[in-house]
Amino acid sequence: MTTPNDENDDSSPGTLSLEEANLLVEEHAGWAESIARSVARAWNLDWQQDGLDGAAMEALIFCSRRFSPDRGVPFRGYARRRIHEASTEAARKSKGWVKQESSTQQERLAREVSVELFHLFPELRSGQLPSVLDETSGEQATRASIRQLLIGATLLTTRQGLASLDPDELLDCKNTIMLLCRLEPVHQEILWRIYWDSDSMRSIAVSWDTDELNVIREHKALLKYLQKAVGQTKPVPPPRVRPGLKTIALKLKREGVHGSFSQYNKEIGGRNG
Fold first, then answer.
1. Domain membership flag for residue 195
2. Which parts of the chain sit beneath pLDDT 50?
3. Is 13 inside a domain boundary?
4. How many Å separate Cα 239 from the centre of its chain?
């Protein structure tokens, strides 16, 4: 079995036992397959016939054996880039893909963002723009909907850009991460799970035993805040937690959860320090 090319092995004495690692693989197999399917769609391939499913599973197993909870980074945050890279490499080598001169890496990444936006905003499938929280209508509502899509795309490209070697792009992405670190832990969890872990808002609601509408509304409120905050020189006060998720927010604080972006920022800061 091949493994993803990872010269900087992240293994440490704090890695899991074989049984625990196998449980991680079982728990996240569907998630890894969803990454392979997303890459396959961007390359116009069949994720199973062209071998992306096997590459994603190998990368998942590889990561499960080297994951250390002591780092304070969620497993999906640790494994996503490696699974994506393995799936992309399988796509590149696939006989089902005919390379075209104009098919650049940027174009492929853009297609992936488009695919994910259709999952995040199902209204797009029927030709509608996403709804907004305020009771605006007409041109104002259209502009607000488009800004929502742009912020959603910004978060997706931030996730992609963190694996980039381009210094300017990497700096922009880290600035966005710093902005997200200012959010309440419950807000960080919503954005992390949606944009980094590819969780649906329904699955988040189920895991928190709350109404899906609470998560949907909170997500829209966060996008509205980010529309104002991104690119501003002066800090914009982060939004308060809406009543529907206050119980969850208090529970996370009692458990000492600081937020996935805060943990991730601490981890990459230590790695680069």
1. yes
2. 1-12, 100-102, 165, 270-271, 273
3. no
4. 21
Domain termination residue (choose one: 93, 123, 158): 93
Indicate if 147 and 250 belong to the same structural domain.
yes
Give just the sign of the alpha carbon dihedral 53, 120, 44, 94: negative
What letter represents residue 157's amino acid? T
Q: Does one domain contain both 63 and 124?
A: no
Residue 183 lies in a domain: yes
Last residue of a domain, one of 45, 73, 93: 93
- Domain residues for the domain of 134 are 105-272
In a domain, 3, yes or no: no
User: How many structural domains does the chain have?
Assistant: 2
What is the reported pLDDT for 102? 43
Q: What is the pLDDT of residues 121-145, one digit of tens each?
A: 777 767 677 776 665 566 777 777 7
pLDDT at 1: 42
pLDDT digits (tens, 9 = 90+) for 1-50: 444 444 344 444 577 788 888 888 888 988 988 888 888 887 888 888 88
